[in-house]
Design brief:
Order of helices and strands: EEEEEEEEEE
Structural class: mainly beta
Helix content: under 10%
Radius of gyration: 13 Å
Number of helices: 0
Largest sheet: 6 strands, antiparallel
Number of domains: 1
Shape: globular
Oligomer: single chain
Length: 96
């Protein structure tokens, strides 16, 4: 799904996570922010980088139902983001 305002476009994806690390957000120099919502019933480990996310290598850990928001205007992390789930399921990722 894509939502557009006069100055920004938000892209929403719902990747399925498993117990294998996967890229959930591609690198983008134009990204201004993101929201990651854990829709699974377990912990989701997220890594800001191309390295595989794991329970020991991660930037943040989202409990079931937890949401992470990072709005950083004109500067901030623009690289790839990987994630892995303890329990397989969907997450919601919004970028703009």
């Amino acid at each position: 799904m894509t939502a557009t305002t006069s100055s920004q476009t938000a892209n929403v994806t719902n990747p399925t996570l498993t117990t294998s690390s996967t890229q959930i957000v591609a690198a983008s120099s134009g990204r201004k922010g993101l929201i990651i919502s854990n829709e699974t019933t377990g912990i989701v480990y997220v890594y800001f980088g191309t390295t595989a996310a794991s329970s020991t290598v991660h930037t943040l850990a989202l409990a079931a139902g937890q949401v992470y928001e990072h709005a950083y205007g004109s500067s901030g992390y623009s690289g790839a983001i990987t994630a892995i789930a303890v329990t397989s399921g969907l997450i919601s990722v919004t970028t703009w």
